[in-house]
From TrEMBL:
GO biological process: aerobic respiration; electron transport coupled proton transport; respiratory electron transport chain
Segments forming domain Cytochrome oxidase subunit I profile: 183-386
Spans through the membrane: 9-32, 52-73, 85-108, 120-141, 153-172, 184-207, 219-242, 248-274, 286-310, 330-349, 361-386, 406-429
Alphabetical UniProt keywords: Electron transport, Membrane, Respiratory chain, Transmembrane, Transmembrane helix, Transport
Protein name in UniProt: Nitric oxide reductase
Lineage: superkingdom: Bacteria
Gene Ontology MF terms in the entry: cytochrome-c oxidase activity; heme binding
């Protein structure tokens, strides 16, 4: 670790790890309910476990983004953070907000807007945390006077994420209007501005891990960001097919969202070619696994499986079925969970005492168990979803009858989900195995590029 203040990232990552573990408990609980009978029906019904599962996801991924930013900005701007104290205040406020929201959901205290269920007081705390965060990193960059393109893209992604949270603060009486604006936050986050955040972390990691030229990497970063923007904004319309808005949204949604996979393919090619240039030359090849893995899994989960149901002619059958869950899992995991885990694995040897740069056997088990577990979960949701669409939407069978017929796929989901959870348990254990470091260390000073290129 080059700068002492980067150690705040450790605590953000630690909170993210705990919430990630908890998220899976509620995921497995939600899956078990599909097998029925449900002994927890009146205490923890499906809607409660699912809302906790998805909200924990959003909170831990955002905690990870914040930690990774606090790690990256000093490195890029070559300075200490503006205020370590503010960073800790923000973390405490944020964690209290996240945990109390979850406790609230247990008592049915929430607003019921999928993924944005946080009650208004919690949403206000989210805004305060974002303001503290943006102020702190803005001041850090201003103080240093060094502002890289990678940082610029990250900052635009973070500021826009905060701005796009605004529609979620308002209440709309009309359901169509409410749904219409809900996607300004959710869709424009995951298929727009979070892509910039992911792209910036990807560029940062690839520059450090592969020793690729900064100018070349940053030029490509611009291209990818451009593609995301062109396709992602109007691509929002792929959520407007059946919500009660005029029909012209159908062709707009189909056309523009079908362009989105191009940006994801760009990212994967970008990562793969950077890796090919230097091979696995950087000592931390585990971090490179996570980095390249993220770009490839995102192409699969978001690009390919997104495209699979984005045209209106397909979506009229698959909308709101387990096909959506298939895509939601693979996309979220590949693009956002894996990039956060990549940043953690990259930073961890420098944030802790006694950990080897190469990563441990345990670390590789965590990687492969998670990747194969998530792949299996995706297939389980996919097969369940295909069955559901056929029986329910084409044959006209009732919802519950169709669910009974597809139960076997939920056994598969629990089996593969358990493999995945084992991978996550190993990752969390590996995370907490070594003591955190609070001081900058001389030997960890890294100059760019970090490795000699093969060709
Ligand atoms: C042990 C692992 C997991 C299991 C067993 C699991 C299971 C489930 C189940 C049963 C649902 C409800 C689906 C429905 O509405 O019918 C769900 C929803 C969801 N899960 Fe997971 N999950 C797991 C891990 C994850 C991970 C790691 C992520 C993201 C990185 C994730 C993201 C989501 C999302 C985004 C939804 C909402 C999908 C939608 O609304 O269509 N889950 N999960
Ligand atoms: C990293 C990027 C992405 C993530 C994290 C993601 C995640 C999700 C999630 C969680 C949902 C369920 C939302 C809800 O019902 O509340 C969803 C829905 C959807 N996604 Fe994505 N997605 C991504 C990219 C894409 C792309 C690139 C496409 C198209 C090419 C796409 C197509 C769709 C469609 C059509 C739906 C609506 C499904 C339905 O009608 O039920 N997604 N996505
Ligand atoms: Fe979308």
């Amino acid at each position: 670790m080059r700068y002492k203040s980067q150690s705040v990232a450790y605590w953000y990552f630690a909170v993210a790890m705990v919430l990630f573990g908890l998220q899976l408990v509620f995921g497995l609980l939600s899956a078990a309910k599909y097998l029925g009978p449900d002994p927890l029906l009146y205490i923890l019904p499906f809607d409660v476990t699912k809302v906790i599962h998805t909200n924990l996801l959003i909170v831990w991924v955002l905690t990870g983004f914040m930690g990774a930013t606090y790690w990256m900005i000093p490195d890029e701007s070559r300075t200490e953070l503006h205020s370590v104290k503010l960073a800790y205040i923000q973390l405490i406020l944020w964690t209290l907000m996240g945990v109390s929201a979850i406790i609230g959901y247990l008592f049915r205290y929430g607003t019921g807007n999928k993924l944005l269920e946080q009650p208004l007081p919690h949403k206000i705390v989210i805004v305060i945390c974002m303001l503290i965060f943006l102020y702190n990193i803005g001041m850090t960059i201003k103080k240093s006077g060094r502002f890289t393109t990678t940082e610029g893209v990250l900052l635009i992604g973070l500021v826009s994420s905060a701005v796009l949270f605004f529609p979620a603060l308002l209440y709309y009486e009309n359901y169509t209007v409410s749904i219409f604006y809900r996607w300004w936050t959710i869709h424009l986050w995951v298929e727009g501005v979070w892509m910039m955040i992911m792209g910036a972390f990807l560029a940062y990691l690839l520059i450090r891990l592969s020793g690729a030229d900064r100018e070349v990497m940053e030029k490509w970063l611009y291209v990818i960001v451009g593609l995301v923007f062109i396709a992602g904004i109007l691509g929002t319309a792929h959520h407007y097919y059946w919500v009660g808005v005029p029909q012209y949204w159908l062709p707009i949604g189909g056309f523009f969202s079908a362009l989105e996979p191009a940006a994801l393919a760009g990212m994967a090619i970008y990562a793969y070619s950077a890796m090919r240039r230097s091979g696995l030359a950087h000592p931390n090849s585990l971090a490179l696994h996570w980095t390249v893995g993220s770009a490839i899994f995102a192409l699969f989960g978001a690009g390919l499986l997104g495209l699979a149901h984005t045209f209106p002619a397909v979506n009229k059958w698959t909308h709101g079925t387990l096909i959506t869950a298939m895509h939601g899992h693979a996309a979220f995991y590949g693009a956002y969970a894996m990039i956060v885990l990549a940043m953690i694995v990259y930073a961890l040897p420098k944030l802790t005492h006694g950990r080897s740069e190469e990563g441990s056997t345990l670390g590789y088990w965590a990687f492969w168990l998670q990747v194969s577990g998530m792949f299996g979960m995706t297939l389980s949701f996919a097969t369940a979803g295909l069955g559901q669409v056929y029986l329910e939407r084409i044959m006209g069978m009732g919802y519950l009858d169709a669910q009974l017929k597809i139960q076997v796929h939920f056994l598969m989901l629990i089996a593969t989900g358990s493999l995945f959870a084992l991978g996550v348990a190993l990752f969390i254990y590996d995370f907490f195995r070594y003591r955190p470091r609070f001081e900058a260390s001389e030997e960890a000073i890294e100059t760019e590029p970090t490795v000699t290129r093969k060709r």
